[in-house]
Amino acid sequence: MITIFDILAISLLVASLIMFIIRYIREEPPILPYFLIACTCAFGNWLGEIGLVFASISLLTAAAFLFLSCIFYPKLRNMGDNPETTNQTPSKSS
What digits encode the pLDDT tens for the residues 80-92? Predict the structure, then answer.
């Protein structure tokens, strides 16, 4: 029997997988956020199947927000590494 938890988890998992593949072709994305989305979807689906509805909805909502953060802020982890993005020039030592 297909439940709403199956539909939510699989759709979020497929969307994040497609986004990861597209970004992998263009650049080298971090794997950890996409792995966390997959694990959260699996665990949230499992909790929904055993009857813990509130915990399942909470985890799937958290996975959805992580997915949105991967969409809107894909290079957030690299912002502090590159001095070109902060408009600062490296100081020269005497």
Answer: 555 555 555 556 6
pTM over 0.70: yes
- Count Cβ atoms below 10 Å from residue 47 Cβ, excluding itself: 19
Give the dihedral of Cα atoms 31, 15, 4, 32; nearest 10 deg: 10
End-to-end CA distance of the chain: 72
Distance CA 83, CA 89 (A): 7
Residue pair 23/74 in contact by the 8 Å Cβ criterion: yes
Are 85 and 91 in contact by the 8 Å Cβ rule? The answer is no
Tokens of 92: 């020269």
Q: Quick check: 33 and 69 in contact, CB under 8 A?
A: yes
Long-range contacts made by residues 80-88, C-beta under 8 angstroms, separation at least 24?
A: none
Q: Which of 61, 41, 44, 63 is nearest to 52 (CA)?
A: 44
**Residue with tokens 């997959």, as numbered in its chain:** 38
